[in-house]
Amino acid sequence: MDDLAEWYGAQLDEDERTARACSGDGKWTADDIAIYGQDLGVEVRAHMAVHDPARVLREIEAKRELLDEHQDVNDGYCGTCVDGQWGYPTHGGSSAQRFPCRTLRLLATVYRDRPGYRAEEWAP
Predict the structure, then answer these.
(1) What is the pTM of this model?
(2) How many C-beta atoms lie closer than 10 Å to residue 23's C-beta?
């Protein structure tokens, strides 16, 4: 597999498979003593191992770089998703994207269950 998009898709597929195998009711909580949500079977342990803190920190770093690239620098348009000189879209779609662009809204949607997320305004 030498195509980056294909390889990345396979990584997402594996993460999805692992997460779905232990998803239970989807509500997990933790305190100083334990993790609550369902039995900590082999699927849950596998999911926890895949999402170890070092990997999570790498993912946060990559997402912060994407956030830095997708800023409002062109009078209300995303500086990455629109050509600053001509106003043409630089990737995907047929029109320039207003800020926040679809890329940024897609990244943020994983936090839609957290306080302050404005679903009607920010949903992709």
Answers:
(1) 0.71
(2) 16
Residue found under tokens 């498979």: 17
Torsion angles phi and psi, residue 7, rounded to 5: -60, -45
Per residue of the chain (124 residues), what is the pLDDT tens digit?
A: 568 777 777 888 888 888 777 766 666 777 777 666 666 677 777 777 777 888 888 999 999 998 888 888 767 888 788 765 555 656 655 566 788 888 888 999 998 888 899 999 889 8
Contact 29, 1 (CB under 8 A): no
DSSP notation for 62-79: HHHHHHHHS-B-SSSBBT
For tokens 């800020």, the residue is 99
The partner residues of 72 in beta bridges, in order of sequence, read: 78
3-state secondary structure of 117: coil
